[in-house]
Amino acid sequence: MRVLVIENNPDISANVCDYLSAKGHMVSAAVDGPAGLCLATTSDYDAIVLDVMLPGMDGIELCSRLRHDSGKATPVLMLTVRDSLQDKLHGFNSGADDYLTKPFALQELEARLQALARRGTAEAKQDAQLQVADLTLDTQTLRVQRAGRALNLSPISLKILRLLMEQSHRVVERREISAVIWGDSPPDSDALRAHMHILRNTIDQPFSVPLLHNVRGIGYRLVDPNAL
Hints:
There is one protein chain. By secondary structure, the chain is α/β, with parallel strands linked by helices. Helices cover 43% and strands 21% of the residues. The chain folds into two domains: 2-126, 3-Layer(aba) Sandwich (Rossmann fold), CATH 3.40.50.2300; 129-227, Winged helix-like DNA-binding domain superfamily/Winged helix DNA-binding domain (Arc Repressor Mutant, subunit A). The mean pLDDT is 88. The chain has helices at residues 10-22, 33-42, 59-68, 85-93, 106-126, 155-166, 174-182, 189-203; strands spanning 2-6, 26-30, 47-51, 76-80, 98-101, 129-132, 135-138, 144-146, 149-151, 172-173, 212-215, 219-222. β3 (47-51), α3 (59-68) and β4 form a beta-alpha-beta unit. The protein is built from eight helices and twelve strands.
């Protein structure tokens, strides 16, 4: 299970990360809201542990932006010292999937995360095909077709295409695309430009209607122009 822990208390974060790692899970961590949102939107996780009280951006805002701005459906387990019904409703309304009050047992935290991850996997399998206009990507088999014609893409092109199709409702910034491909060590901007050129030639050049659009100075958007 791949878990992102967004918690600014160093003791709690260390305890959770150490426990989950010892159980064989892959764990990433962030100590503030902006860093957590960046990781949550640019990488794929099976579940997110999200503290409500965070510097820079609280957990409520982070979860809301994750759902509405980024369109990410990653299951979120919120941590908080607040246990009133109104606080819980506030968290659920922002897009959280579960709620755990501090202090908590690490065994219960893991059990809840595993339940959320299983549910998220089942839902993902039901929506395994991404589609923008007549372009489709099967996220299970990685088969790409446009207008019924099979397209061959490199692994990097597939990563870029999946990101753009998942985020087709908005412009994806260059730094987000670079983070998906190269993580924290991106090469110069010409490398990304070259990959985008290859992707455009594959999915657009043989067809009459272009779907991949360069938004000057910002990034790229994959969208059906007839839907705008």
